[in-house]
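Encode chain A's predicted structure.
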Amino acid sequence: MPYDPPLDALPAKRAARVRRARRLLGGLVLLAALGGLLLARFEQARSGDEAALNEGSAHLWAAIGGDEARWAKAEDAFSRAAHGSIVDAYPLFALEMTRRIRSGAWGEIEPALLPAAKAIASGDLASARAALDAADKALGHAWMAQLVTALERSAAR
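Encoded structure for chain A:
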C-alpha cells in the first residue's frame, strides 16, 4: 500500500510542486464542470426554443386562418423563444413577422421578401414558397424560408 506523506513532511521544492499539481488538477476539474454546465444550459435553452418556435408557428398558422385569439399566443411563444435564444436571430425575426402580418403594415421589409410575406399573410404557403424561390437572396431570406417551412409543418398537422 503506497504511503502519501503530508506535504509538510516533504522537502520544500517537492511540496511546492505537489501543491501546484493539485491546484492545476483542481482548476481543470472546476473548468470541466463549468464547461459541462454551460453546455447543458445551452442545450436546455435550445430545446426550449424549439418547442416555443413550434408552438409559435402553430398559433401563427391558426391566427392567419382566422382565429384572432391566437395572435397573442403566437407573439408570446415567439417572444419566449427570442428571450431564450443567444445566438440565433430567427425567433426575433418570427416575432417581428408575426406583428407585421397581424397589422398588415410591412414597414421596412426587404423588397425581395415582400411577396412571400404577403402570401403568408393571405395563407397561401405555396405562393410564399414560390416567391421565396424566385427572390434574390436578401437579408432575412433564410429566416423567411424557415418561417414558411414551420408554417407548412403546422398546416400539415
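The chain has one domain: 46-156.
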